[in-house]
């Protein structure tokens, strides 16, 4: 059949006139739908990325008084550790990204370019993604409990294999963290590499290396570069892993962490560091643009049998096993620790940790919240990423429009989750989004947009570019083509994107930790709170719960995207038998008019690659309609309705950073005095709650809170957010700090510091038990102690108070503190619970931490003891305060604050044995050397002592 006969329409009367005249009417398509999608994407990014980040940038140029200045930049740049942290971050991030890309390529190559068994390929694909099923906050714990001095793998080998702190620990953690992302990107692109060129290269007699470079590596070079960039920025912006195993190897993310969540949060200086972390995005945008030229498109992907190569298969198979074993062995402890009594002291099997967590009603609600947030993040995130991918890969929009989306994706890669969370705080405090699930969902979608977008973009760009044009010539509109042709071909990638969003929404902490409220807590924020109160067994139990949940979801997705090539072949054969004449006619039309197979399929209503759920179309449509109705109910009902504030039913919302013992005492006092079921208590880590107080001010969801006293004072100075207490009748003792407590707060507990020892590790080290802080400066304790850095934790302030009061901040005090820091080395912890964790795990023999936690460990029979130092047990108080919300103030809050102090102190004294009020007597377990710093504990004094500590830290590091 000739083209002229087709144009005349004589032999195929069903050909539409627009096809007949397609050569006579060349014009630029309007692409109204794609412009609409671009507008939606642009508006969303403007509202939820640009505006919040602009507020962060503005913060970097303003002082506490609101004046515009460069003083914040000068202050940050003048610190020598800032330059060092940048250099260190670049080095370890680049190294880990390179290693992760190479390992991910090996795994993807084994799956796609070898003839190893199909079951083995599926196992590799699943196991390669396993690390991303866990929150990064557990990575550091897993490394310590695996490769530390008393770790599981260390015990198996009989000695520690390598030092896990500093560069080594960060490299290991970052590679494990970023490997799944690299694998997803590279493996996804491998599916669009036409394997027939490998056969052709073999037939042409090319050398194996030439074949590999030209037919495998060359089509993937762009994706591999993108994977490197994404891996680099994931490592560059992560702070969870450095908090545990960073040691003395300062990285920029930890510098940002200390500014945003340290003992003195400084959002303005933190914004400066955030701006510096955004600078590399400019480089990445340029690289992305350059890498576009390396993209290769195939009009059709051939399914061919790969050439045999036993050596290749064995080598790749063994290498993949080694990579996976080395990667996943780190997480073996997560499957062990929840089922032993107390690692490493008592390894007797038990299910008590599991049963205790699942009998907690709060955990059930938190887990339900997490599932909802993850599911909605995945659904809406898929739609959003798919829309952006269509704009850049399946359109003829101007290059500036496409590049703008690519640029936004690159920028998102460089925005730390913690910065994004803070930015959302600045932008949406007091709005209808505050304390709803939807602010969490939106934050997750924006935070993790880059990888899903790149996956969908790669998938769409490797499809035939002429499908939409051909379908239009056949009379099909754009929406029908997308739904019936493009989407079915992209379905496996879409499901992978769904899984990626779901998993990351389940494991993320940094992007949502500031945004959760009393009714919107998720499981990872619960883990963060447990970490702060040193409940590490529970951390592993919750991590295991997250792992199981994510495994189920990934398993379902793997089942849905399983290979159905045999079924497709049968379906194609049946279609050919049923309509042989129509098939022949369409083949002729395709030959003469270059119509693609996919476009023909769209015109017929059958996708080129049928959906896994292909079957009765009416049934599928009914199912889709029903699912849409359910989602609509979830969107409206659960998303906003379930997050209505507690004030609607008169309940008082109480935010607290207190330990479980204190929370239980609060509950007993309230329940026994007529307030049962009239309040909600929500726990936070000190830093997270402090950040919310300073950022949200009176817009804070809480009606009442208990918090570190100096944080309450700082928030009051900045935001004037607390009302004077009217129902507290107990009178404070005449101590220096308590007697001057302001009228808007009243102390609930006093947290004392003490020296903590692991009696078993101390005996093995062969050193005497220290009696004072001065003893800790002795060189014989080098490598055996762990202390908190007061720049990152207020617990460290207790030690600094003792040294400053006993020895001053002059030469003697400076020498003692410098020697302590030198002896601590990589165990200068950024978390107040860090030293206790190191002592419990046997990493060190001696630590400094909160006295009551050591007392509790000793009472449980652990080989943990405590020493009241000769310099004295100094303390920090936590106080209750009521928010002043004007006419919206809950009247019950004042009465409850009074009950907590007047009725709850008797029980609190059992755990926190420091008398604070008149008539109280110290119990038997009280410290014998309780002391109070002679000056009031103000933020100014905290800054003074922090400067003293920073100077000693620099001296200890040889600067």
From TrEMBL:
Query: In which domain of life is the source organism classified?
Result: Bacteria
Per its UniProt record, what Gene3D superfamilies does this chain match?
MetI-like, Periplasmic binding protein-like II
- Family named by the database record: Belongs to the binding-protein-dependent transport system permease family.
* Protein name in the entry: ABC-type Fe3 transport system, permease component
* Residue stretches spanning the membrane: 34-58, 90-111, 123-145, 165-186, 216-236, 270-294, 314-340, 371-393, 405-429, 435-453, 498-519, 539-560, 622-642
Q: What PROSITE patterns does the record point to?
A: ABC_TM1
Organism the protein comes from: Bifidobacterium saguini DSM 23967
Provide a GO biological process annotation. transmembrane transport
Extract the InterPro entries matched here. Answer: MetI-like, MetI-like_sf
Where the record annotates domain ABC transmembrane type-1, the positions are: 86-288, 367-557
- Membrane topology per record: Multi-pass membrane protein
Write out the annotated subcellular location.
Answer: Cell membrane; Membrane
Alphabetized, the UniProt keywords read: Membrane, Transmembrane, Transmembrane helix, Transport
UniProt xrefs under Pfam families: BPD_transp_1 (PF00528), SBP_bac_6 (PF13343)
Mention any one GO cellular component term assigned to this protein in its UniProt record: plasma membrane
């Amino acid at each position: 059949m000739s083209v002229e006969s087709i144009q005349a329409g004589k032999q195929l009367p069903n050909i539409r006139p627009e096809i007949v005249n397609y050569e006579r009417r060349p014009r630029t398509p309007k692409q109204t739908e794609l412009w609409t999608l671009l507008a939606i994407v642009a508006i969303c990014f403007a509202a939820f990325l640009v505006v919040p980040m602009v507020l962060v940038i503005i913060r970097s140029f303003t002082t506490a008084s609101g004046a515009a200045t460069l003083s914040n930049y000068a202050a940050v740049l003048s610190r020598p550790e800032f330059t060092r942290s940048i250099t260190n971050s670049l080095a370890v991030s680049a190294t880990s990204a390179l290693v992760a890309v190479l390992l991910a390529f090996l795994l993807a190559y084994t799956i796609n370019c070898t003839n190893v068994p199909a079951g083995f390929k599926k196992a590799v694909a699943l196991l390669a993604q396993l690390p991303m099923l866990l929150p990064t906050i557990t990575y550091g714990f897993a490394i310590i409990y695996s490769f530390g001095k008393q770790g599981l793998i260390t015990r198996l080998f009989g000695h520690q294999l390598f030092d896990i702190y500093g560069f080594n620990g960060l490299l290991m953690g970052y590679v494990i963290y970023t490997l799944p992302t690299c694998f997803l990107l590279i493996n996804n692109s491998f599916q669009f590499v036409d394997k027939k060129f490998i056969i052709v290269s073999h037939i042409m007699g090319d050398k194996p290396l030439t074949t590999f470079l030209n037919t495998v590596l060359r089509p993937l070079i762009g994706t591999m570069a993108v994977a490197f960039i994404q891996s680099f920025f994931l490592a560059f912006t992560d702070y969870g892993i450095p908090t545990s195993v960073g040691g003395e190897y300062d990285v920029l993310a930890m510098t940002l962490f200390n500014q945003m969540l340290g003992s003195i949060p400084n959002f303005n200086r933190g914004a400066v560091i955030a701006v510096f972390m955004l600078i590399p995005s400019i480089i990445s945008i340029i690289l992305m643009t350059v890498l576009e030229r390396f993209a290769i498109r195939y009009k059709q992907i051939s399914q061919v049998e790969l050439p045999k190569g036993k050596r290749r298969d064995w080598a790749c198979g063994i290498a993949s096993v080694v990579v996976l074993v080395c990667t996943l062995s780190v997480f073996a402890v997560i499957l062990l620790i929840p089922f032993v009594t107390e690692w490493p002291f008592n390894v007797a099997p038990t299910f008590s940790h599991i049963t205790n967590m699942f009998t907690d009603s709060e955990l059930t609600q938190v887990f339900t919240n997490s599932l909802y947030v993850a599911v909605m993040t995945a659904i809406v995130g898929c739609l959003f990423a798919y829309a952006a991918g269509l704009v850049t890969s399946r359109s003829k929009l101007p290059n500036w429009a496409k590049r703008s989306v690519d640029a936004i994706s690159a920028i998102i890669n460089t925005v730390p989750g913690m910065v994004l969370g803070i930015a959302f705080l600045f932008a949406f405090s007091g709005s209808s989004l505050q304390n709803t699930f939807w602010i969490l969902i939106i934050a997750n979608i924006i935070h993790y947009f880059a990888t899903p977008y790149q996956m969908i973009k790669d998938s769409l760009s490797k499809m035939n570019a002429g499908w939409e044009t051909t379908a239009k010539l056949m009379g099909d509109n754009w929406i029908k083509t997308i739904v019936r042709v493009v989407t079915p071909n992209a379905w496996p990638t879409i499901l992978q994107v769904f899984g990626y969003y779901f998993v990351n929404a389940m494991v993320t902490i940094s992007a949502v930790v500031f945004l959760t409220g009393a009714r919107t807590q998720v499981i990872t924020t619960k883990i963060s709170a447990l970490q702060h109160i040193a409940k590490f067994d529970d951390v592993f139990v919750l991590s295991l719960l997250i792992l199981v949940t994510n495994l189920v979801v990934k398993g379902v997705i793997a089942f849905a995207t399983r290979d159905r090539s045999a079924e497709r072949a049968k379906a194609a054969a049946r279609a050919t038998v049923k309509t042989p004449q129509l098939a022949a006619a369409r083949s002729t039309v395709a030959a003469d008019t270059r119509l693609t197979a996919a476009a023909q399929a769209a015109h017929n209503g059958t996708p080129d690659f049928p959906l896994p759920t292909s079957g009765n179309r009416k049934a599928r449509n009914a199912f889709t309609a029903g699912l849409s109705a359910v989602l609509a109910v979830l969107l409206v009902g659960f998303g906003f309705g379930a997050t209505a504030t507690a004030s609607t039913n008169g309940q008082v919302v109480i935010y607290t950073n207190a330990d479980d013992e204190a929370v239980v005492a609060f509950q007993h006092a309230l329940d026994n005095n007529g307030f049962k079921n009239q309040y909600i208590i929500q726990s936070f880590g000190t830093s997270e709650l402090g950040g919310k107080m300073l950022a949200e001010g009176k817009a804070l969801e809480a009606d009442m809170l208990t918090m570190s006293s100096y944080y309450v004072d700082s928030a009051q100075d900045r935001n004037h957010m607390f009302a004077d207490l009217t129902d507290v009748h107990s009178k404070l003792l005449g101590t220096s700090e308590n007697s001057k407590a302001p009228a808007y707060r009243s102390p609930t507990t006093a947290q004392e510091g003490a020296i903590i020892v692991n009696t078993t590790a101390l005996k093995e080290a062969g050193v005497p038990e220290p009696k004072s802080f001065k003893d800790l400066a002795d060189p014989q304790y080098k490598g055996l102690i762990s202390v908190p850095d007061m720049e990152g934790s207020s617990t460290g302030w207790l030690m600094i108070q003792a040294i400053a009061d006993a020895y001053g901040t002059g030469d003697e005090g400076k020498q003692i503190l410098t020697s302590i820091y030198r002896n601590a080395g990589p165990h200068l912890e950024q978390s107040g619970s860090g030293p206790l964790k190191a002592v419990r795990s046997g990493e060190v023999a001696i630590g400094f931490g909160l006295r009551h936690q050591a007392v509790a460990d000793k009472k449980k029979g652990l080989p943990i003891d405590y020493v009241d130092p000769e310099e004295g047990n100094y303390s920090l108080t936590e106080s209750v305060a009521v928010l002043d919300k004007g006419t919206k103030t809950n009247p019950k809050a004042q009465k409850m604050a009074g009950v907590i102090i007047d009725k709850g102190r008797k029980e609190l004294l059992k755990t926190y044995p420091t008398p604070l009020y008149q008539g109280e007597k110290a119990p038997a377990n009280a410290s014998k050397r309780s002391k109070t710093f002679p000056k009031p504990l103000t933020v100014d004094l905290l800054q003074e002592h922090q400067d003293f500590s920073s100077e000693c830290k620099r001296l200890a590091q040889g600067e």
